[in-house]
From TrEMBL:
This is Succinate-semialdehyde dehydrogenase/glutarate-semialdehyde dehydrogenase. One of its GO terms (cellular component) is cytosol. Residues 20-477 form the Aldehyde dehydrogenase domain. Belongs to the aldehyde dehydrogenase family. InterPro entries: Ald_DH/histidinol_DH, Ald_DH_C, Ald_DH_CS_CYS, Ald_DH_CS_GLU, Ald_DH_N, Aldehyde_DH_dom, Aldehyde_DH_Superfamily, Succ_semiAld_DH. One of its GO terms (biological process) is gamma-aminobutyric acid catabolic process. Keywords: Oxidation, Oxidoreductase, Potassium. The lineage of its organism: Bacteria, Pseudomonadati, Pseudomonadota, Alphaproteobacteria, Hyphomicrobiales. It comes from Maritalea mobilis. Gene3D superfamilies: Aldehyde Dehydrogenase, Chain A, domain 1 (3.40.605.10), Aldehyde Dehydrogenase, Chain A, domain 2 (3.40.309.10). GO terms for molecular function: succinate-semialdehyde dehydrogenase (NAD+) activity. The active site is at E254.
Length: 484
């Protein structure tokens, strides 16, 4: 495999590849085959402290660089990533399991964040505010928040690193990253490429570990960490909020989702089916913005289920490097067990599977694309994040019913709906309690747009020009005595 060129087995601290302080290693497993890809450094709390110290030492020199200098370094980083996109995609597919074409799309998506924030580095504008005093001026300047700690998930091991590291570096902040235990290799490859681009020692640090709680405790409580950025479950997000409270850390939390997907009877049915396919089955349903609850108006319910089932049945399950594969494996045995539990509960409560409903014969971690119809409104599959290729389809009566059902969740990350009625588009877009809304579209992610949720789906936004603000502090400066 070409990914051998970008495969690294050691943690990355202060610009160097290092073993863990106790010499321990852990295995990175290919979820499609169960084979060990490699053994890598299994860092400890002590290693996390070293990484934070390295980032702290790098803070002032990195922040002192001009925005143009940071921009040029980050632009070189982008160029190197694109130059090696094929090797990075193969590495990502091998450690995470997603089809190669989808992995290549993630590499380009992640690189786009590096490019975007390289450009945004030069647009960290402040303000001049009119003062009530004639001999005074009010300035508002923006400065880097400080050392950032990032804890990233396994489902997008390249893009989630880039989406956090790029704005941090653009703002002038060094960063310490703890990638997911299941998928640490993409993070190490990105860090090494950043080094080639000229990112100075200590500005990017990667702490690989199987000791998530031990290392995470250091990253989220250490007094020298000013900000924590986390993507993962709401349960862990609550722990991070508690940990950061003692030192009043700035937080960006992109947490759980339970996205509603609404199809009104005036929708373009074929477009809605295609949107549901893209939203639900991308990354084998392992995304926080997946269509988790599909609500279809009663008059078109049967037609939608029939078309949706026919198209989903065509999706090929298999290994990342097989041709025309649409769905790879789930990440681990726990993920498969959770999907099986949710499907069993729904069927016990009256649902039936139009397709799928069982594991694939491709391997232990492969699950067939599944559509459940006539799902009870009290089924667990509507309350819990599925994170698998299972689409529950529920019938609703009218617009008010759809909005009530969609908002009946503690989560508020993404939501989707399909309608041709312009008045309804405005009403429903405003009524949905979520941070991201797709109207007649099943995939909404874009570097130019703010990504994040409301309610218990988190705090802050990533991407877009708003995404830089979470890595900056505002400083008010009053300049007096200016009269002659």
């Amino acid at each position: 495999m070409a990914f051998d060129q970008v495969l690294h087995q050691k943690a990355f601290i202060n610009g160097a590849s290092v073993d863990s302080s106790d010499g321990a290693q852990f295995a990175v497993i290919n979820p499609a085959t169960g084979e060990t890809i490699t053994q890598i450094s299994d860092c400890t709390a002590r290693d996390a402290e070293k990484a934070i110290a390295s980032a702290k030492a790098a803070l002032k020199p990195w922040a002192a660089k001009t925005a143009k200098e940071r921009c040029e370094i980050m632009r070189r980083w982008f160029d190197i990533v694109i130059e090696h996109e094929q090797e990075l995609a193969e590495l990502l597919s091998t450690e995470q399991g997603k089809p190669l074409a989808e992995a290549l799309g993630e590499i380009r998506y992640g690189a786009a964040y590096i490019e975007w924030f390289a450009e945004e580095a030069r647009r960290t504008y402040g303000d001049l505010i009119p003062s009530a005093k004639g001999d005074a001026r009010i300035l508002v300047m923006k400065q880097p928040v400080g050392v950032v700690a990032a804890i990233t998930p396994w489902n997008f091991p390249n893009a989630m690193i880039a989406r956090k590291a790029a704005p941090a570096l653009a703002a002038g902040c060094p960063i310490v990253i703890k990638p997911a235990e299941d998928t640490p290799l993409s993070a190490l490859a990105l860090a090494q490429m950043a080094k080639l681009a000229g990112v100075p020692e200590g500005v990017i640090n990667i702490v690989t570990t199987s000791k998530a709680q031990e290392v995470g405790q250091v990253l989220t409580t250490h007094q020298d960490v000013a900000k924590v950025s986390f993507t993962g479950s709401t349960e862990v997000g609550r722990i991070i909020m508690r940990n950061g409270a003692e030192t009043i850390k700035k937080l960006s939390l992109e947490l759980g989702g339970n996205a509603p997907f609404i199809v009104f009877d005036d929708a373009d049915l074929d477009r809605a089916v295609d949107g549901a396919l893209m939203s639900k089955y991308r990354n084998s349903g392992q995304t926080c913005v997946c269509a988790n609850r599909i609500y279809v108006q009663a008059g078109i319910y049967d037609a939608f289920v029939e078309k949706f089932s026919a198209k989903a049945a065509e999706l090929k399950v298999g290994g990342a490097f097989e041709s025309d594969v649409a769905l790879g494996p789930l990440i681990n045995t726990e993920a498969v067990a959770k999907v099986e539990e949710l499907v069993a509960d729904a069927i016990e409560k009256g649902a039936s599977a139009t397709i799928g409903g069982s594991k694939s014969d491709k391997g232990d971690l492969f699950y067939n694309p599944t559509i459940l119809r006539d799902v009870s409104r009290n089924a667990r599959v509507l309350r819990e994040e599925i994170f698998g290729p299972v689409a529950p389809v529920i019938k609703f009566k009218d617009e008010a019913d759809a909005i009530t059902l969609a908002n009946d969740s503690e989560f508020g990350l993404a939501g989707y709906f399909f309608s041709k009625d312009l008045g309804r588009v405005w009403r429903v877009a405003e009524a949905l309690e979520c941070g991201i809304v797709g109207v007649n579209e099943g995939v909404t992610s874009a570097v130019e747009a703010p990504f994040g949720g409301v309610k218990q789906s988190g705090l802050g936004r990533e991407g877009s020009h708003y995404g830089l603000d979470d890595y900056l502090e505002l400083k008010y400066v009053l300049m007096g005595g200016l009269a002659e």
